[in-house]
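Much of what follows relies on a compact textual record of a protein's fold. A complete example follows; check for yourself that the lines match position by position.
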Amino acid sequence: MSKIQLSSSQERVLTALVNLSEGREAPVQGREIADA
């Protein structure tokens, strides 16, 4: 598979979604998204 290039904001959103799907708390990513 080819590597997908993500912007920093997309990467933060994707990370937060992965954390939510795995049931983990992600307060740092949440604050970063809110401030973006």
Q: What stands out?
A: The radius of gyration is 11 Å. The helical segments are 8-21, 27-35. The first helix runs from residue 8 to 21. Residues 8-36 form one domain.
